[in-house]
Amino acid sequence: MLYSLLRPILFTLPPETAHELTLSVARLSPILGRLSGSCPSDRLAIQVGSCQWKSPIGLAAGLDKNAEALPFFAEQGFGSLECGTITLRPQLGNPRPRLFRYPKEQSLRNAMGFPNEGLIHIAPRLGGFEATLPVGANIGKNKDSNPEESIEEMSIMMATLADDVDYFVINVSSPNTPGLRALQERSYLSELFQELQSVSKKDLYLKIAPDLDEKKIIELTALATEYKITGLIATNTTIMPERGVGGVSGVLLKERARKVRKLILDQKSPLEIIGVGGITNFQDVKDFWMDGGKAVQLYTAYVYQGPELLRELNREMIHFLDQNKLKNLTDFFKLDLKERQKCLQPLPKPESI
Ligand SMILES: Cc1cc2nc3c(=O)[nH]c(=O)nc-3n(C[C@H](O)[C@H](O)[C@H](O)COP(=O)(O)O)c2cc1C
Questions:
Q1: Domain ranges, ordered by start, for the chain
Q2: Span from the CA of 5 to the centroid of ligand 1 (angstroms)
Q3: Shortest CA distance to 87 belongs to which of 118, 121, 120, 125?
Q4: What does the alpha-carbon distance between residue 140 and residue 145 come to, in Å, rounded to a whole number?
Q5: Looking at domain 2-344, what is its CATH homologous superfamily?
Q6: Averaged pLDDT, 114-129
Q7: Which residue has the higher pLDDT, 350 or 93?
Q8: CB count, 10 Å around CB of 57?
């Protein structure tokens, strides 16, 4: 309600100014998070890797890059939070403007380039945050480091944060750091996985781009399975050169991201697959469940719809459980895929008299 009044005002500001203003308010007034947010029912809690999410809807990386407003976001109604991308050293990112809106298409395009305050400033915030839900750290390389150095950087970040977060995400899929996506290569990733697994036993995910070809996606799924990392996060933003530089998120990404997620799920690997990219409403969540998925994350839809989106999703998930006479979502995910798909079929319309 409050957000629907504020949004038109925020949208008169340049996108990054609106983002910074919102984050400052969120940082200074965490209580507003509770007043505008909603708490997921216990019936929505699910196991994701070794973490118990409060609901299957997590906050995707990039919104709270510096972990500065976690107490606010923890009260909004998410099932988990992911901060970052964090780099070892602070960096400014690309020159502005670097964030663009497509309101009619409920989409964004960003060319941020990992602006963040660096590990030294972010680590104490994560250490001091008394989490009531799982928190992940999304880590990436500094712009000017070479692949060998980047492995060392991520290793240091993981060692520093291991006691303070619940899971880690390797981000080699942003289109905004030159040469980064080339690191989705087998030789680099196998070395990186081995190094990070020797540093901490915390859950480890790889976030992938939606612009990889099918062969590459299958290869990465196999590699992640071989190294027994926890799972994949699919997907990051997509390149659409006709729109400009950077990566596109939201509705414009939905179809492409869904195809990638389905392809990964069809491999029937033991990996945990977290779905992200264009999740805008409960139908998108159900589509992911229909394809065999479980937990999702979102970013752009939250920018457009605010905390009302979470309230609505949490309400619809409860309604879904009631309709199917299920005690909780854990019981739903215990069903085999065919049974789950049956629950997800639209109910037949009542016959007219
Ligand atoms: C402005 C902006 C900044 C982002 N920054 C990051 C980031 O730092 N690290 C990352 O892994 N993903 C980042 N993302 C990608 C999101 O986490 C997500 O994968 C993508 O936006 C697709 O989800 P959505 O359609 O729900 O927004 C960013 C997205 C946006 C819109």
A1: 2-344
A2: 25
A3: 118
A4: 11
A5: Aldolase class I (3.20.20.70)
A6: 97
A7: 93
A8: 25
